[in-house]
Design goal:
globular; 105 residues; alpha+beta; three-stranded antiparallel β-sheet
Length: 105
Protein backbone atom coordinates (compact mmCIF):
# COMPACT_ATOMS: atom_id res chain seq x y z
CA UNK A 1 0.00 0.00 0.00
CA UNK A 2 1.38 3.40 -0.99
CA UNK A 3 1.12 6.32 1.42
CA UNK A 4 1.94 9.99 1.13
CA UNK A 5 4.61 11.17 3.59
CA UNK A 6 2.10 13.70 4.96
CA UNK A 7 -0.31 10.85 5.84
CA UNK A 8 2.14 8.63 7.74
CA UNK A 9 1.55 7.85 11.41
CA UNK A 10 4.33 8.87 13.80
CA UNK A 11 5.29 5.22 14.29
CA UNK A 12 5.70 4.80 10.53
CA UNK A 13 7.87 7.92 10.34
CA UNK A 14 10.06 6.67 13.20
CA UNK A 15 10.47 3.33 11.42
CA UNK A 16 11.42 4.98 8.12
CA UNK A 17 13.87 7.35 9.82
CA UNK A 18 15.61 4.34 11.34
CA UNK A 19 15.67 2.52 7.99
CA UNK A 20 17.05 5.61 6.22
CA UNK A 21 19.85 5.70 8.81
CA UNK A 22 20.62 2.01 8.25
CA UNK A 23 19.32 0.88 11.63
CA UNK A 24 17.68 -2.50 12.22
CA UNK A 25 14.26 -1.26 13.35
CA UNK A 26 11.17 -3.21 14.33
CA UNK A 27 7.59 -2.08 14.76
CA UNK A 28 6.23 -3.55 17.98
CA UNK A 29 2.48 -3.83 18.58
CA UNK A 30 0.63 -4.00 21.88
CA UNK A 31 -3.07 -4.84 21.54
CA UNK A 32 -5.08 -2.32 23.55
CA UNK A 33 -8.89 -2.47 23.63
CA UNK A 34 -10.08 -1.99 20.04
CA UNK A 35 -6.85 -0.28 18.92
CA UNK A 36 -3.25 -1.37 18.74
CA UNK A 37 -0.44 0.67 20.29
CA UNK A 38 2.51 0.71 17.87
CA UNK A 39 6.05 1.78 18.60
CA UNK A 40 9.50 1.31 17.08
CA UNK A 41 12.51 -0.35 18.68
CA UNK A 42 16.15 -0.45 17.64
CA UNK A 43 18.27 -3.04 19.46
CA UNK A 44 15.46 -3.47 21.98
CA UNK A 45 15.34 0.25 22.85
CA UNK A 46 12.48 2.64 22.09
CA UNK A 47 13.24 4.70 18.97
CA UNK A 48 11.07 7.76 18.42
CA UNK A 49 12.81 10.73 16.79
CA UNK A 50 9.39 12.26 16.11
CA UNK A 51 9.03 12.81 19.87
CA UNK A 52 12.54 12.43 21.33
CA UNK A 53 14.81 15.46 20.77
CA UNK A 54 17.98 13.56 21.69
CA UNK A 55 17.31 11.17 18.79
CA UNK A 56 16.05 13.83 16.35
CA UNK A 57 18.51 16.71 16.74
CA UNK A 58 21.60 14.83 15.52
CA UNK A 59 19.65 14.03 12.33
CA UNK A 60 18.32 17.58 12.01
CA UNK A 61 21.82 19.03 12.35
CA UNK A 62 23.54 16.46 10.13
CA UNK A 63 20.95 16.82 7.36
CA UNK A 64 20.63 20.60 7.83
CA UNK A 65 16.87 20.42 8.14
CA UNK A 66 15.28 23.78 8.76
CA UNK A 67 12.09 24.09 10.78
CA UNK A 68 9.90 27.05 11.61
CA UNK A 69 6.69 27.66 13.48
CA UNK A 70 3.76 28.56 11.22
CA UNK A 71 0.99 28.54 13.82
CA UNK A 72 0.43 27.24 17.35
CA UNK A 73 0.17 23.62 16.20
CA UNK A 74 1.80 23.75 12.77
CA UNK A 75 5.49 23.53 11.95
CA UNK A 76 7.06 23.62 8.51
CA UNK A 77 10.37 22.09 7.44
CA UNK A 78 12.37 21.67 4.25
CA UNK A 79 10.34 20.68 1.19
CA UNK A 80 7.29 22.47 2.70
CA UNK A 81 6.58 19.42 4.84
CA UNK A 82 4.32 20.08 7.81
CA UNK A 83 3.83 18.53 11.23
CA UNK A 84 2.12 19.21 14.54
CA UNK A 85 5.52 19.57 16.23
CA UNK A 86 8.94 20.68 15.09
CA UNK A 87 10.33 17.14 15.42
CA UNK A 88 7.47 15.62 13.46
CA UNK A 89 7.91 18.14 10.62
CA UNK A 90 11.68 17.62 10.57
CA UNK A 91 11.46 13.83 10.53
CA UNK A 92 8.81 13.92 7.77
CA UNK A 93 11.22 16.09 5.76
CA UNK A 94 14.07 13.64 6.39
CA UNK A 95 11.95 10.68 5.25
CA UNK A 96 10.80 12.60 2.15
CA UNK A 97 14.42 13.49 1.28
CA UNK A 98 15.37 9.80 1.39
CA UNK A 99 12.27 8.11 -0.07
CA UNK A 100 10.28 10.77 -1.94
CA UNK A 101 6.78 12.11 -1.33
CA UNK A 102 5.15 8.67 -1.45
CA UNK A 103 6.30 5.35 -0.06
CA UNK A 104 5.24 1.74 -0.31
CA UNK A 105 4.57 0.27 3.15
Amino acid sequence: MKKQIKDLELCEIDYLVAKADGLDAKIEIIPFNDDDYKYVTVKGELYSPTTNPSQAWPIIERERISIESIDDNVWCSNYSIYGKTSLEAAMRAFVASKFGDEIEL
